[in-house]
Amino acid sequence: MLSGKMMEPQDDIEEDDSPSASAPPSSSPSPSSSPPPRALPRQRTSLQKSSVCSRSYFMVVMVFFHVYIINVIALLLYVHYNNGSNAISANRDFTSSDSSSHKVTGASDAQATADSGFPRNMFLPRIEGIRVGHVQKVSLVSGKVHEMKTLSLKPLLFEIPDFLSEEECAVVVRLAQLKGLMESQVMVPEGQEELDQQLNLSPEEIFNFLDLNQDGQLQPHEILTHSRVRDGIWLTSENLKEIYDGLKADLDGNGLLSLEEFGRLRSDAFQRFLLQRGVERSQLVRNSRHTWLYQGQGAHQVLQDLRKRVTLLTRLPSSLVELSEPLQVVRYEQGGHYHAHHDSGPVYPETACTHTRLAANTTSPFQTSCRYITVLFYLNNVQEGGETTFPVADNRTYEEASLIQNDVDLLDTRKHCDKGNLRVKPVKGTAVFWYNYLSDGRGWVGEQDEYSLHGGCVVTQGTKWVANNWINVDPDYQRQARYQLLVSQQESQEQEEPNSDQHIEAHQDL
Amino acid sequence: MLSGKMMEPQDDIEEDDSPSASAPPSSSPSPSSSPPPRALPRQRTSLQKSSVCSRSYFMVVMVFFHVYIINVIALLLYVHYNNGSNAISANRDFTSSDSSSHKVTGASDAQATADSGFPRNMFLPRIEGIRVGHVQKVSLVSGKVHEMKTLSLKPLLFEIPDFLSEEECAVVVRLAQLKGLMESQVMVPEGQEELDQQLNLSPEEIFNFLDLNQDGQLQPHEILTHSRVRDGIWLTSENLKEIYDGLKADLDGNGLLSLEEFGRLRSDAFQRFLLQRGVERSQLVRNSRHTWLYQGQGAHQVLQDLRKRVTLLTRLPSSLVELSEPLQVVRYEQGGHYHAHHDSGPVYPETACTHTRLAANTTSPFQTSCRYITVLFYLNNVQEGGETTFPVADNRTYEEASLIQNDVDLLDTRKHCDKGNLRVKPVKGTAVFWYNYLSDGRGWVGEQDEYSLHGGCVVTQGTKWVANNWINVDPDYQRQARYQLLVSQQESQEQEEPNSDQHIEAHQDL
Fold first, then answer.
1. Is the pLDDT assigned to residue A182 strictly greater than 90?
2. Which of A214, B33, B91, B385 is 20 to 30 Å from B302 at the Cα level?
């Protein structure tokens, strides 16, 4: 149709109302437009004219053809990048911000694009949980359909049986054993006072920070919450009484510490007292051994497959998954446990993420690992115990203070695993995954989801093998974008340089 | 490039690596490409040649220009229709179905497109709640930004202060008064036995249906749940004892009805007993007066504006909102109440929706109003009481049996409104809205959200005016599509016919 009309001017040229106006873009012009240039000079049979004509004509064709192709490419690129961004911009029309951390993220979004040239509007789809018990079919391995069951909405938590085959589980365990596992927690952690000193806090300031309910006294749970995180030793209420007696800390014997009583104690007094007295491994926050397995190019195929499957499962951009932490493989011996904790911390405007710190240009003392998603794999069947507990899953409210009651400490996975809201039994090959952060309502990471609190119940019989994949995402879009740009630049540099061994070696250390 | 090589192989034509290949679509070809064609023949100064040349040249330009424009339009259309469908298809790749009702919907989706020609992939966006207390800014009225606060996630419930202005509230109340209000519930409902008879159930079958925990005995709460829905009279545990005594129903006096005891009662025995004894309005499920206001073309501007604002608020296709029920305006006098209920029922495969029944071609005895969303407007400030209660909002579990305990009946909004999880205070101009159904995970309506249970607490002082907008959506995509097609066909027919008054009159009846 195209070429025919060119040669015969008397023909009616298609008007805008022609039905082909809605033709699909597949009616490509390139093949159909190539005959005319040749046919034209031949018909006219005036060679000299046509040589001139064909020249100008050729130029026109060329220009239009190129412009056309360029525009089609540009439009296709637009379509491609628009799918993500539309979903975001739809939300942005009704932009939300109710916390300062949100504002930081929001303001930097548009900036990131302009600054870094990073593909704009990277988008984090969040899987719909619908309701507890909902089952959706997911396609992760060709020729196989997995079932993904919603276990809770707060946190958004899913279980996928048979995510790994028996053989894959065996390979991961074997690779971890070959690499060698180390104690997950050393007995005497060092550098504990650094943050206090760095922040230069007075005892009054620390007291006020610990006094969650601001009643001018430190309740046992206020002390416990802090000291467990700080010292890595799992104090119980009984331990605390013992320490108070030993240190003569609670002079009036009311079980509470006043500012005066608190001020008389060294900041590491509890830890020193306990270490003097002797601490068992079972008294640590975490009693396990672990190692890290690199999953990138050159790694065992099972590890690479696993990462691809995680990308499909979480539906996150593969670049995000690839730049996340390596696989952590953990072994719990009989008696092993991991008391309830968050995999990643809350986000304040000044919080830096470990993974993007290099790109962030900040020296913030607040740092967290920014683990947006945790994917946990069970690598064996545990004879008894070893469940993963989510003590406050789908609770109506989250109150830190109410977690540690006098009689029941919901955080204690050695004593009170049965009192929590949800427990997942370890079954070989099953994966569970959950979001440690909420959405910000605009397609990116929002606030920490406090309900993602979880722990490993004590293994009462046998050994427990699990692996963790954490997907690291910076809640600050700009920082994540800058980081990814930096890594991609480095990688292309390394490819140019002949001795790129350093890079691989660095990974093998993991 | 293609044609270039044919004519002048020596010319260096732009290669694929040219920077313009990634140029944005804004570099439109029509202005920038027009100068070269003209300049070219002039430079040559051969007039006759150029006249031939310009003709063929003109044709080439025209054809390419048209093809280009057509293709741009086609691509833009592709982009346009792709946004909605992509969002759905992204979900569909991981299609879910865990209940039979889902399967019905799922199977009919593609069908609906093919059958009815209805715009395919109609999509129901669901607003993200993020977390309780989250505030998002929404743009509903030009020059004004509203704040929308998440009140609960189960049900997904939002509050928007100042949704209506004082004047708008006054107009709606006035219009309702002019129209006249009727009792929301008549004292003696008729046709109660119809369903039983239609289904032809034996006393044994009814007994088994009522015996929720299947223990062979009817507990008081099992009787109460049923009789309240059936008879519209709000029995309390005390009433029940009274009735048992009066009818000598509970022969062994254990407070439970065995099949034998149950079988001796007429199916309307309780209702007859109560009516004989006399029933107060305060003993009804619902003690209020209401009317319906049409919101379409010709209606008061405030009513039309309200509907547009509801469309913006819910982000649903406007055709869905326009085909929903009219505005219901309700007045509660002092002492008025509405015990806790669901605005719409559960969805079974054989359930029909009231609004699409005409298009559905079914005579199912199960029918519900399929109110996907409830938007509730407070039209005045109530002196005391009259809160909207959501007794189980964000509860970890929903157990019908545990709602009615011996001492606390969470469904009773006259006695136990203070025991529920969430209460919304009526404030003039504020709107609240919630989803009565979950998502099906594929952009359409899923199962009923049981947590959407709500009621109107008793008005202890003053009068309470509210209005309800329900957005009706059939959980069966195909039925909804067929219904909308049918209505649009009827409307276009009526427009052709001169006497379209009937249509308007029919609406004014509402």
1. yes
2. B385
Give the closest of A40, A130, A139 to B438, CB-based: A130
**A344 and A467 in a common domain:** yes
Q: One-letter amino acid identity for B268? A: D
CATH of the domain at B489: 2.60.120.620
Which is it for the CA torsion B280, B283, B288, B289, positive or negative? negative
Q: Which chain B residue shows the shortest CA-CA distance from A47?
A: B49
How many Cα atoms within 13 Å fall on the side-chain side of residue B339? 25
Chain B residues within an 8 Å CB radius of A75: 25, 72, 75-76, 79
Q: Are residues B496 and B352 in the same domain?
A: yes
Instruction: Give, for A315, the enclosing helix (H) or strand (E).
Output: none
Chain A residue with the nearest C-alpha to that of B58: A6
Cβ–Cβ < 8 Å for B135, A98: yes
Q: Last residue of some domain: B252, B282, B312? A: B282
Task: For residue B484, give how far its alpha carbon lies from the nearest alpha carbon of chain A (Å).
Answer: 25
DSSP symbols for A125-153: ------STT-EEEEEEETTEEEEEEEEET
Do the domain assignments include residue B24?
A: no
- Please check whether residue A127 lies inside any domain of the structure: no
The Cα B18–Cα A365 span in angstroms is: 47
Task: Phi first, then psi: give them for residue A431, nearest 5 degrees.
Answer: -115, 145
> Which one-letter amino acid corresponds to residue B122?
M
Count of residues making up chain A: 510
B356 & B403 share domain: yes
3-state secondary structure B207-229: HHHHCCCCCCEECHHHHHHHHHH
Q: Is A306 found in the same domain as A446?
A: yes
**Looking at beta carbons, which residues of chain B come within 8 Å of A91?**
128
Do A150 and A217 reside in the same domain of the chain? no
Q: Name the residue among B40, B72, B93 with its Cβ closest to that of A56.
A: B40
At A259, give phi and psi (nearest 5°): -60, -40
A125 touches chain B (CB under 8 A): yes
Per-residue pLDDT tens for B56-83?
767 766 777 777 677 766 666 655 554 4
Residue B18 lies in a domain: no
State whether B362 and B474 are in the same domain.
yes
Question: Over the stretch B282-322, which tens digit does the pLDDT of each residue have?
Answer: 889 999 999 999 999 999 999 999 999 999 999 999 999 99
- Token pair, residue B464, equals 């309470």
User: Are residue B401 and residue B462 in the same domain, yes or no?
Assistant: yes
Instruction: Give the residue numbers spanning the domain of A312.
Output: 135-185+286-508
Does residue A206 share a domain with residue A261? yes
Tell me: pLDDT of A26 over 50.
Answer: no
The pLDDT value recorded for residue A421 is 97
Q: What is the CATH number of the domain that holds B262?
A: 1.10.238.10
Nearest C-alpha of chain B: how many angstroms from A24? Answer: 6
Residue B346 contacts A, CB cutoff 8 Å? no
Whether B19 and chain A come into contact, CB under 8 Å, resolves to: no
- State the total domains in chain A: 3
Q: How far apart are the C-alpha atoms of B78 and B60, rounded to whole Å? A: 26
Write the pLDDT tens digit of every residue in B375-434.
999 999 999 999 999 999 999 999 888 898 878 999 999 999 999 999 999 999 999 999
Query: Whole-structure pTM over 0.80, yes or no?
Result: no
Q: Which residues contact B386 (CB under 8 A, 6 or more apart)?
A: B332, B336, B426, B456, B457, B458, B459, B460, B462, B464
Q: Chain A contacts of B47, Cβ < 8 Å?
A: none
Residues of A in contact with B1 (CB under 8 A): 62, 65-66
Strand-strand pairing, B157-160 and B144-152: antiparallel
Domain boundary among A227, A250, A282: A282
| Cα distances (angstroms) measured from residue A210 to each of A203, A277, A401, A409 | 10, 25, 12, 18
Comparing CB atoms, the residue among A68, A137, A439 nearest residue B94 is A137
